[in-house]
Amino acid sequence: MKTPMIAMLGAAAVALAAYTFTRDDPVEATDLPQIEGQPMVAVTRPETLTAEATMGKRAFDATCAACHGNDSAGKLGSGPPLVHKVYEPSHHSDMAFVLAVQNGVRSHHWRFGDMPAQSGLTKADVAAITTYVRELQRTNGIN
Description:
- This protein is 45% helix and 0% strand.
- The chain contains five helices and no strands.
């Protein structure tokens, strides 16, 4: 009789731990003063970008920077920084960026509201943007 009770308590403890460590509570970036429209984190730029990342920067600046800020530092009141541990490759794969552009994203890490799908970008554009963001992340210690 004790064995089933112990098993149930163990299962409940595992479920609670899984919930606690995997839930998507909103994240707050606090590297910089919290002023509407200002960058949310400090971003160090790499000394040089690869050719693909340079093309990605152009596409990012034209399409993504309005919400995600210059150098993907986020923009308080508009969109989150992509140079942030939340978007490290082990948590958000490159495919997550592709799907976000194609389908939009339900708000889950931040309190900016849902991201709409983005039109006018080719698969090559999205791949180049992802390369740019990943190079910024690596320069800032996010691998």
